[in-house]
## 1
Amino acid sequence: MSLKTSDVKFKDRIRLQLDDAVMRKAVANAQERIGANRQKMVDELGHWDEWRERAEQIRDHVLDNLDAYLYQLAEKVTENGGKVYFAKTKEDATRYILQVAQAKNAKKVVKAKSMVTEEIGMNHALQQAGIQVVETDLGEYILQLDQDPPSHVVVPAIHKERTQIRRVLHETLGYDGPETPEAMTLFIRQKIRQDFLSADIGVTGCNFAVAETGSVCLVTNEGNARMCTTLPPTHIAVMGMERIAPTFEEVDVLITMLARSAVGARLTGYNTWLTGPREADNLDGPQEFHLVIVDNGRSSILGSPFRDVLRCIRCGACMNTCPAYRHIGGHGYGSIYPGPIGAVISPLLGGYANFKDLPYACSLCTACDSVCPVNIPLSKLILRHRRAMVEAGLPPKAEQRATRLFTYANSHPGLWKVGMIAGARAASWFIKGGKAPINAGALAEWTAARDLPQADGESFRSWFKQHKAQGNK
C-alpha cells in the first residue's frame, strides 16, 4: 500500500462505486450516526467556534515555528534514550525502518493504525524483505485479510457490512461462528494476541508529539497500540513532521477537538503517552525506541499557498459530512487520503499526474469547511488546485475545449448572437418539465441530477430590445 491505491481511471472508479449499493448504504449510515453523535458532543462542550479558533491558533503557531519545535522534539527524545531519524522522502523513511528491522533480525512486525505508514508504503517495503507485517487495528486487520485498501482515515472499513466481514474471516481464517460483532471481534482478538506475543517490533503512528517532553501521543479506541508499544522489544513511531504540539496544554485542546470530531465522543477509549524506551525500574515498555519524522513533501507545502492543509489532525470530520464521499466512498478517490482533505492533500503529496481528478470530486458545498475542527478552508484550497491546474494547462480536456469554444464565440459578436438565438431555441426544445432527456450525451451526467428552468425560446437581447422599445424599465 502507498498513497495511490488504484490504477483504475477516475471515471471508471466512480461508476464502480456508484453501483456498489452495499458500500453506499454503509457509508450513509455511518455518516448519519457519527454526524449525530458529533453534534451532541459539540453542543455539550459549548462555545465550539471559540474552541475551533483556539485549535487553529495552536496549529498555526506550530507551523510558524516548526523548525524550532522539531529541533526541541528531537533533542528531548534523544535525552529520553530514544533515536530520531528525519526522513526527507518516503524512500528514506522505509529504508530506515527496514534497516532497524534487519538489524534486529526481525521476522514479524505488529502495527497499530497509522496513515503516514500507509502513505510511505511501509508494509510493502517490509514484506518485500520477507518480514511479516500484521495490522492490529480491527478494521485494518480485516482489510489486510481481504487485500482491500482503507476508505476512511479513522474508520478504515467503513465501506464493509458484517456479512462481508464474516465472509472474509471464513475464507481466510476458517471462521464458522455467528455474524455478530462481538463474536467476530473475540475471534480476531484471539488471533492477534498470538502475534503480539511473538512480534519483534511494534510500529505505530503518532497523533501528536509533545516538543517540551519528547512524548508521543497515541489516540485509539481498541487498545492495540498499547500492545504494540509494550510487548515487542523495539518500538518505532512514525509521524508526519507537522504533528507537533508545544506542550501538554495544547495537546489537551487538540484531543478535545479530535475525539468529538472523529467519532462523536468526549474522549477515545485509550489515550497513550510514551516518553522514550523502558527505564531500569519500569515494568514494561520497549527496550529501544525510534521516532521517524517524515517530510515527504510537507516542507514544500509549508511554503506554498496550500499551507493551511498542514493544520489537519486527521479526524475525518470532512468525510463524515461530504455528499460526494457519501456516494463514491473512500475508494472512489484512489488515495489513502479520501474525501475533501484527500482532494487537497493527495495532489500535493502525489502530484497532479496521479490525482488531477480529485479537486473536481467536489460540489463546493462547503460542508467540510463548517465542521473542520481546525478551520481549514478546504473548499478554497480545492478551488486553488483547480486554478493551479488551469494555469498549468491540466484541466479536463472537455473543459479546455469548452473554454476555447466560449472564448472564440465571445470574441466574435456575430457568431455570439447567432449562438444565443440558436441556444435559446434549442433549450426550449431540449428541456421538458425541468428535465433534460436521459440521452443528453456529454451533458447527461450533469443534467440527470438537476432541475433545469424551462426556456421560452427567446434570447435576453431580443427580449430587452423589445421591452426597451415599449418603454419598459
## 2
Amino acid sequence: MNEIDDLDIIAIIGLSGRFPQAKDIDSFWQNLKDGVESISFFSEQELLDSGVSPDLLKNPNYVRAGTVFSDLEMFDANFFGFSAKEAENIDPQQRLFLESAWDVIESAGYDPEKYRGLIGVYAGIGLNTYLLNNIYPNFDSEDSVGGYQLMLNNDKDFLPTRVSYKLNLHGPAVNVQTACSTSLVAVHLACQSLLNGECNMALAGGVSISALQKTGYLYTEGMIMSPDGHCRAFDKQAKGTVGGSGLGIVLLKRLEDAIADRDTIHAVIRGSAINNDGSLKVG
C-alpha cells in the first residue's frame, strides 16, 4: 500500500459480539469452525411454561425451535450510572449494546472518558419484545418508572444517543432502521462519516434479541421460515431460515490514522454502497 491507496480505506480496529451459545466473538468463531448449530429445540412443557398456547402447540405447522440468549437479565447497572429500578425498565437490547460498546472501545485500547477525538455511533435495534411482554403488563405497578423515562429506555430512536451519553462520546449519533440490513447499513454510514471527517472513530452495529426465550414459530408454506427448525445456509438442503438473536459492533477508523496510532487492525473495508430493489421486491 502507498499513501494514496490508504486514503479511502477504513480499518476495523475493534469488534465485539454476543450470540446464542457464544458469549463473545472468539466463541462464535469457534462454533462456526466446529459446525455448531446454535438452535435449541424445546419440549412441550418448556413452551407451555413460556406462555405458548396449548392450541398452538397442537398445530402441525408449529415448529418448536428457536434460539436462547443466555444471561439476558445480567447488567452492571452501577457501572453505567443506573439505579436497579432504572435498569429493570430498560430494554435488554439497549443494556447489552451499551456493555458491548464499552467493551469494543476498551478492547481496542481506548478509554472513552480520556479519548480526545470524536467517536460516532451508528446503530440499530430490533423489536422491543421486553416492553410488550414484561413492562406493559406491569405498567401500573409501584415499581414502574414514568412514561417519558420509559420511552427513553425502550424506544428504538434512542439507542445511539443513549450510548453516546453514557460513554461521553461527542461524534454523530445516528439511529439506523433498515430491517435485516441495519448493521451493514450502519457500517456503511459510519465509513462515510469517517471519510468525510465527521469523526475520528466510529462504532457501528446492531442488536436484535427477543425477550421471549423459549418459543417456536408457525411455519407457513412459501414464506421464509424453515419447516423443520434447521437453518442450512448455502446448502442444497436449505429450506428456510430460523429467527435468531444476536449483537455485533465494530470500531472503525481511517486506515492511515490506525497505522499512525499503531492500532490492532483486524481487517479493512475498501468500499461500500447501498441501494434498494425498488418495485422488484416487497419489503
